[in-house]
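Summary for the steering committee. The consortium agreed at its last meeting that each partner would contribute one worked example illustrating the joint modelling workflow. Our contribution is presented below. We chose a case with several input lines so that the handling of multiple components could be demonstrated. No manual editing was applied between input and output; the record is shown as generated.
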Amino acid sequence: MTNHWIDLKNSDCILIMGSNAAANHPISMKWVTRAKEKGGKVISVDPRFTQTSAVADFYTALRSGTDIAFLGGMINYILENEKFFKDYVTNYTNATFLVTDKYKFDDGLFAGYDPEKRAYDKSLWAFQKDEKGIPKRDPEMKDPLCVMQILKKHYSRYTPEKVSEITGTPVEDLKKVYEMYSATGQKDKVGTIMYAMGWTQHTVGVQNIRTMSIIQLLLGNVGMAGGGVNALRGESNVQGSTDQAILFHIWPGYLKMPLASQATLEEYLKQSTPTSADPLSANWWQNYPKYAVSMLKAFFGDKATAENGFGYNWLPKLDVGQNCSWLNLFDAMYDGKIKGFFAWGQNPACSGANSNKVRHALAKLDWLVNVNLFENETGSFWKGPGMDPKKIKTEVFMLPCAASFEKEGSITNSGRWAQWRYKAVNPPGDAKPDGDILYELMVKIKDLYKKEGGKNPEAILNLKWDYDTKGHFDPHKVAKELNGYFLKDVEVAGQKFKKGELVPSFAFLQADGSTSSGNWLHCSSYTEKGNMMARRKSDQSGIGLNPEWAWCWPVNRRILYNRASVDLEGKPWDADRAVIKWVDGKWVGDVPDGPWPPMSDKEKTKYPFIMRPDGVAQIFGSGLNDGPLPEHYEPLECPVPKNLMSSQFINPTIKVFKGEMDKHFTCDPRFPIVGTTYRVTEHWQTGLMTRWQPWLVEAEPQLFVEMSKELAKMRGIENGEKVKVSSARGDVEAVAIVTTRFRPFKLGQLTVHQVGLPWCFGWIQPKDGGDSANLLTPTVGDPNTMIPESKAFMVNVEKIKGGA
Amino acid sequence: MSLTRREFLVISGAVGTGLALSSLGIDLGPAKAYADEIKVKDLKSAKQSTTICPYCAVGCGIICSTDTKAGKLINTEGDPDHPINEGSLCAKGSALFQVGPSNPNRLKKVLYRAPGSDKWQEKSWDWALKEIAKRTKKTRDADFMEKNSKGQVVNRVESIAHIGSAALDNEECWPIQAMMRALGLVWIEHQARI
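What follows is the complete predicted structure of the assembly.
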């Protein structure tokens, strides 16, 4: 989230799309309700009428996988009717920038497409630059090559009639949503978006979010209280675990994973550090070397020296283009290329798309380590449906861990608040905190390398591993390491610091090895003043920033891009909801995005979007793999014979898996119904924790499939009957729930039905509760993130004979 | 002596301080109701500690009450002083108590499944971690790739993978990725990708 949960109360219009917040983030609705009480409007757009829709001021449906068409139509409406916030757009975005004449868009393809590689040459999407290397602008936004004109041209194709035929949303409903939401383009009106996996789990997932980001920028809603772009994250610490980079493509703090071509630290830093010729651009990432070297110092301590590149070469590097993301991981495992596997606090046998493939992949392993609270379908895969234990060679180590309140540490919520939790009770039996398990395991691995030697032993032996106190893992020691220390007596910016002191903020980190910080974004979370994440001073006054409740990254800034919430003089666009303001030569309010004066001070100011090399927000974005502007493509599996926007049927840059278990079918009469997955309030993710709790199982005991009355009638299915739901990849048995919550979509002459299933069940528990809906979902991902397309695929639904 | 819960939590540091349940005049609400069932007369002392809900990422505050003498969790409830949830919880958060040690389904032993076997065997931590360490080393050393096909130094191993977890604390996430990277793993993923 650019903003945070409480900030929802400040909004005039909340669009909830790609999320069913009322069911899956129930307490968020407390703040949505507060907004409503003050006159704010809530719009729910979802293929199914959900609990969220029930409390919305306006609801309409769209067919799964058509969000870009829906929102592209909104961009068209905003531009045609001049609903955009001109001062904001001109000064704070790249709408005025001129692209080069190499940029083109023709019949669904952008310039630079290579059909063999299924990839673009993104250099053709560059901006024109002046002799100093600064992007050229047209402040009037009239030049046909300026971003605003390109945007207009691109989205003029998304007429309400065309959009309606793609999405199945009635034209009048589209216009109603566009009108309601674009009313926030006024400078004193603010709209926000709440989205979740309903947007990310598509082959156009990132572009779904980009489309909304463009809308938010056009309407001047980013940086504002009650605005922003808000991802509702689904796991208590998925924000933190991403920040700490348990991901193949990044180092902690969103630093880049080194490439094989970057042979030295110097080359890695040079290629990773962006430059800007514009003196008004803060280009905050110019500090990259300070963060990377401080991180290496946290990794390797005293062993990391300037002479050895701070241990840079001990760590693994990827080949150029090597993608080690989830779907590829299980593809490699299925092909027998992976021998050992740690599944730590995760249940991929139910959470992985195309779970059948995942389950069979596990059987190819030599050894599997599963750390969890409860027995689950991953650790016990060898005794699951269709498995013969005698034929499965995989050794499995099932390690029992502690629950969240049986240990101490911090987690980071969706609003980037890192909150400290305390230990209430010991874990049962032999169960241990994950911290102790991983700590002791690495001690044993280090012992083996000390005794026996082995490959690249420096990385293992030099890894700083002193996070215990009296033989137990000590989270405070790691929290301090994440924040970082001064490693010698130094003077920075006129302030003196002693060796061993905690660094007060990332502005003090250095690239010479004199500071450490495991994650620069956590710098200021645990300082000489104490554990900031443990603070408990709540303050609901004003816009509800709660600056002394816990701590949030970066540097306790509660609303990101807040320097865009003021005009060029530093006055808030909306005085009643000021986030920051310039008073007597300084900023007051939230921690500003940098200390520089407002834009009217042309000597000392900096542009507000400090993380971008150009200093402004990107309406035209040249970084994504599938285009600088979002374009509608159909899901890999879809019910329509063609894409009405272009002759590019599916996203031309997705990887199409072709293995024996990766089947997919479009417009196949065997699978004529759109399928989607979702969650329920009473279960969490795969249900691994909640399916073992009697109170929750009583409330939600078994797998169901929701469908319209029309579809049920067509298939001869009664409410409550057992049915089989099947896709090209697998099938599940589920109880039919027949309601008006789903309705058939009218796409021109075509009628399309959609059904939905929760993915929180699994064969192990409860007995006869059904299996995972991910047995149905396809192996295909977004071309930028490789997040699977679990929200739009094709299925069939049939009555099970005798299955009353 | 009259204290609000907030003052109480500030005083006790919200951590580990054992205090008599009744002496502060705190309204225990549901805790008391539950305590009634477990013979409240036997309850000598308790502490309250705060936690954050382990489910979705709203980050709601929850108060845990623990009988310190018996070392037992006796109640969990929404934290009224928490600015996000102001004491409210959803169905899952309200049921957090059932995740605790009293749930008979919790895994309490290290389990091992041998190749071809159809059952678990109970093992000790020391044995399991030693065996895992040995397998990790053996697989890593056998398949370690110092250089790629272009002769560039890559120091990685592609035959071991790691996933998880968004359910861990930040202070566990960081060392787990440090450990896996030091081992040379590049298959490092978790829930953020699904």
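Chain A has a mean pLDDT of 98. Residues 115 and 652 of chain A are 8 Å apart (CA to CA).
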